[in-house]
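Student: I would love a firmer grasp of how sequence relates to backbone shape in proteins. I am handing you a single protein, as its sequence and its fold in token form. I am told such tokens are a discrete way to write the fold. I hope you can help me see how the letters and the tokens relate. Take your time, and here it is.
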Amino acid sequence: MKILIIEDELKTAAFLKKGFMEEGDVVDVATNGIDGQHLSATGDYDVIVLDVMLPQRDGWWVLQEIRKRRAHQPVILLTALDAVSQRVKGLQLGADDYLVKPFAFSELLARVRNILRRCHVRAEDVLHYADLEVDLLRHKVWRAGEAIGLAPQEYRLLAYLMRFPGEVLTRTRIAEQVWDMNFDGDSNVVDVAIRRLRRKIDDPYSGRLIHTLRGVGYVLETRD
């Protein structure tokens, strides 16, 4: 998943970012309402975790701006305000869920996954292509029925390729979505990661799935 966290408490934002990244997600963070609204309008996120009490513009304003542009964008509100009227206000403005601080990360993660299922952001929890299978919930991978152990970075890269089978993905796009970084044309980080992934996904099996388009990027597809 790609997640936007809009939270002005730096420790809380760092805690949430670390938790989601350990789950294999890509995370952006904004610490005020203006920056948060800008990222929500220009980025493509599976879910937005939005604090209500923010500097410059509060979470209510950000939520309303999000709903003007993206009616179905999943949003979960975080707040220290436990009054029923505040929860009702958040839901009336279009929040998908509401979590009162302090909370356990495991509860937030469960609510995020529930929202994604309910909003059909993720069409399925297990991705299939040819004889390759990726379980998005359990972070497990199989090819030809054999379990394959991947490092977190390798798993994120494969999951991203699996979401776009047959589509050529540029190095810039892969770097942005998998590593949350701007791609430097002189960097070989994507190429090195692809080589490591191929050793586990392709080399031991008949029929390569990950192919290179020289000068462009990579594509996951079967070829005769």
DSSP finds eight helices and twelve strands in the chain. The mean pLDDT is 87.
